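How a chain folds remains the central question behind the approach discussed here. This step matters because it turns folding into a mapping between discrete strings. The sequence in question and its structure tokens are set out directly beneath this paragraph.
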Amino acid sequence: MISEAVGRHQSFEARFDHCGRFPGVLYLAPEPDAGFRSLTEAIVERWPEYPPFGGQFDDVVPHLTVAQGQDEVVLAKAEADLLTGLPVIAQVSTVDLLIHDGTQWRHRASFSLASAPLR
């Protein structure tokens, strides 16, 4: 179960302070990205027959997609607008399972991470 694979991981803070690009994609890059990588590795370890992105990439880059499939002018404008509002700091306490039906993404379930110890 997904809850078992990710539930042993502690919640963590992520800071998004810069944008990145893949071809046709604008994203926010988390710093640090170790928590996201650890969660991805836990899922891959549990279900190695289903690698992220179908195994297309040797290194899965943690990211938060902001825009995809738009022309370069739209991506550049979105990036300029985003930069004025950064950083964004978030507490990551759940993993959400999204399903793509060929047209859009739909939320299927949420799985809680372990609570981080109080500081």
In short: Strands lie at 12-22, 25-31, 64-68, 88-92, 94-100, 105-112.
